[in-house]
Design a protein that fits this description.
By secondary structure, the chain is mostly helical. The protein is 77% helix and 0% strand. The protein starts with 7 loop residues before the first helix and ends in a 13-residue tail after the last helix. The chain binds protoporphyrin IX containing FE. Protoporphyrin IX containing FE binds at residues 44, 47-48, 51-52, 54-55, 58, 91, 94-95, 98, 120, 123-124, 126-127, 160, 164, 167-168, 171.
Length: 213
């Protein structure tokens, strides 16, 4: 089997495997909730776990395109939409845990959090940015918007990822190692894109002698 051009059957199996893998965290939480094994603070456990998986899947989905460029495995792009929808799924669970279990629709307290707690101030718009991306993730919307506009809109995912990392960084009180790891990985992924973009514009990273824009 060639990994460069696997046949459609293999890709279908890979998609099923990725789908099942992405379901593991939510199934794990569901089972833990059912057997009452979420620990001393179940709401905190649910919020933290769904937040962690939102950011992890977001970075995984941002890895697809650089990995495709490095390996030439174009079929990887066929996993991107599913991964993106899983990001939205976990982000919605994260937000709903906060809205329903943590705050129970206490709108005044929610507005207060958005204004007063910096990590919520960035987390909230980061979540909001995911909504237009999820709504326009189907072929009909790509056609309706046109490829260029659709691509431009979906660049919002970079802002959302930066917002997610800042949100994590600001909420951690002591050990910064996890948010730092996410920040480094995101810088790598965005840096890779920057290099490709500059190459496309024919702008060298280190200006050569005689180079003109
Ligand atoms: C309306 C939007 C959001 C709200 C209200 C929210 C709220 C929260 C809260 C209350 C916590 C737990 C804080 C603590 O226990 O001290 C948390 C953790 C977290 N959130 Fe969010 N969040 C939002 C959006 C997001 C988004 C969009 C992402 C990712 C892109 C994200 C990623 C995380 C991560 C990684 C954690 C920490 C997980 C861990 O401790 O391992 N959040 N969030």
């Amino acid at each position: 089997m060639s990994l460069k051009k696997p046949d459609n059957k293999i890709i279908a199996w890979i998609k099923i495997a990725v789908f099942l893998l992405a379901l593991i965290p939510v199934l794990n939480l569901g089972i833990s909730a059912y057997i009452d094994n979420l620990g001393a603070n179940p709401i905190e456990k649910l919020t933290r776990s769904t937040g962690f998986w939102t950011l992890t899947l977001l970075l995984i989905s941002l890895t697809v395109s650089p990995l495709r460029r490095l390996t030439g495995w174009n079929w990887l792009m066929r996993l991107r939409r599913m991964l993106g929808l899983f990001v939205f799924f976990y982000a919605s669970l994260h937000f709903l845990t906060y809205l329903l279990l943590d705050q129970f629709f206490a709108w005044a307290s929610i507005v207060n959090d958005i204004v007063k707690r910096p990590y919520i101030t960035v987390g909230f718009p980061a979540f909001m940015l995911l909504i237009p991306l999820a709504v326009t993730s189907n072929n009909r919307m790509i056609k309706l918007l046109g490829g260029k506009r659709w691509l431009l809109l979906h660049r919002l995912v970079y802002l959302c990822a930066v917002g997610g990392v800042v949100h994590y960084w600001w909420l951690v009180k002591k050990d910064l190692s996890n948010p730092l790891t996410f920040a480094l990985l995101l810088s790598l992924l965005l840096g890779f894109r920057l290099i490709y973009w500059l190459r496309g514009l024919n702008i060298p990273l280190i200006p050569r002698k005689g180079w003109q824009p």
